[in-house]
Design a protein that fits this description.
Blueprint lengths: L4 H4 L12 H22 L4 H4 L2 H10 L6 E5 L5 H9 L34 H14 L6 E6 L6 H13 L3 E7 L10 H10 L4 H13 L8 H15 L3 H4 L4 E7 L3 H12 L5 E6 L7 H5 L27 H15 L3 E5 L3 H4 L2 H6 L4 E3 L4 H13 L3 E7 H4 L3 H9 L6 E6 L16 H6 L4 E4 L4 H14 L8 E5 L23 E4 L12 E6 L2 H9 L4 H4 L2 E5 L2 E3 L3 H8 L4 E9 L4 H11 L5 E7 L9 H7 L4 H25 L1
Parallel strand pairs: 1-2, 2-3, 3-5, 4-5, 6-7, 6-8, 8-9, 9-11, 10-11, 13-14, 13-16, 16-17
Antiparallel strand pairs: 10-15, 12-14
Helix pairs in contact: 4-12, 6-7, 9-10, 14-21, 17-19, 22-27
Length: about 650
Amino acid sequence: MKPLPLLDGLISPADLRRFTAAELAQLAEEMRHRIKETVSQHGGHLSSNLGTIELTLALHRVFDFSSDRLLWDVGHQAYPHKLLTGRAGVFHTNRQQGGISGFPDPKESPYDLAKVGHSSTAISTGVGVAEGYRRQASRRRTVVVVGDGALTGGMSFEGLINAGQLKSDLLVVLNDNGNFIDAPVGSLHTHLDRIRTGRMYDQLRTRVVSLLKRIPRGKGLERFVEHMEHAAHKLISPGYIFEDLGFRYFGPVDGHDEKATEDALRRVADLRGPILLHVLTKKGGGWEPAVQDPLKFHGPKGFDVESGYFHPKSKAGRTYSQIFADTMLAMAGEDQRLVTITAAMPSGTGLRVFAQTYPERMYDVGICEQHSFAFAEGLAISGQLPVVAHYSTFAQRGFDQIFQEIVVQRNLGIVVTLDRAGLVGEDGETHQGLYDISWSRCFPGLVLMAPKDGAELTAMLRWTHAERQSTHRAAGYLIRYPKDEAPEVQWSAAATPLALGQAEVLHAATVADADSASRLAVWAYGMPVHVAHAALAELTPAELARVTLVNARFAKPIDGALLAEQARTHGQVLTLEDHTLPGGFGSIVAETATDLGLALRIHRGGVRDELVPHAARDVQLAAHGLDKASIVKRIRTLLEGGAREAIRFVRTG
């Protein structure tokens, strides 16, 4: 790391109060460099953090967050806060195994009040914190910084409404950067745009109110004038939407002018009740490459910290997200009824090109996963064929809507794709896609699927599109796939056609039937299929002869007929899934074996029942026994145990 004298010498945020204006400007540049330096090497969130540097300096100069409380929403804009709160020296470990998290984390610092990864939650938390301090008669201030589209989430407004109702001593700083990860959407963004351009508000309001007050206030006109004043205030007030919720609105203020932001914060710091300070910033925070293309620099890696030029990369294979995008484009050209929906993630899910090609058929609903499922319900009822594309971790935010708006409707046939399913790497605990099998399998009428490769993902998308137009369509179809390149594997045989609830045998054991007790059936679901296939290549011919590999394809309905058939010819089953073990695919196989009365020893491979911290995805997979070496070892251990069991059975039989 490049030595940075002011930043590296900072002991605590309290030191900032002794800095001169020139020193603050220098410190801001040093922070900007440290963030670019780290993200260029290890990846992470860049443009959003470059936009919050001066705001963060102002916050820590005005408030003492060793006593006052600060929450960030969303958490990926808090890098400057981390630099100022004792983590500048270890910031180069950001998102690395054993290093600091890419999000606020109370385990790292007392200045981090809560771990925040998902959007639109912090106002609600802040209301609870403020109410708790009120009950203790504490004068601590609670500050919530809301930005990067978090205010489009419905939960933000639930928090605002509750704060207004309770008259909470809460300061909400709206970091309005005019953008989300992708382009901004929604009527709220339009309203904030009007605020940005409403420079003459104060003068206009003064003149209008003054004019109204000149109207003679006879007894019959007094109430009318009061109503007119209120209506005029709403007409020209940039913050009326917040004031109607019980907040006092201040701003907007230039969030890149540290002094102006600091002055505004000082003016509201001691005010009681719900306060909203509107701060205008730009993603990229003055670094021209990120300002010009904030999306490209949202989560970059491998670029020059001065020019922004990206270093050449070796040619990579196609990701599952890209294959999904290509398939959607092809299918949309064949069926005008196909429409797609995402929640502020058109780029991440692969739908950005779809939106450019079919702008009237891709709906970005903002950070509103709950709404997305009800919206899909309405589209399906009216004859459209929606595909809802979410990250697995975000889809779980719409759990109840999947039940009420999809499952209970019985046969709408809505297709939901779950990108980033499984272990997600450096984003860590808050973003792991490890739970979607568990939370969706309990709902009747849902079909759960996972492809073994890119070709099978395309086949599943086309199959579900055809199935949902049949008379026996399901309530919904969930297809999960990982944050990975799709493997290019030479399978031993051509893929068998998809059929509801039918698995695919990729390799069959060849050992004599008399030794069936020593045979092992490996049932893999989704991503682990190709890893298990690679593991078989490491076995000896004698070992390979005793192993059957099954590509499950469906977690629900599971292929119980194949499992029952294999129970007659195999002694053990090993399940493999890129998912948490409780309630996952292995649980489904074990429950099915129990329900069918099958004499099988079931062994499960997957993610242990624990929060998985940030690290490279391959490191996480290895830690939970889902890499090739671990699977080879597990298979050999089970084969040895199965052989001993077979010998014991023969001797005692």
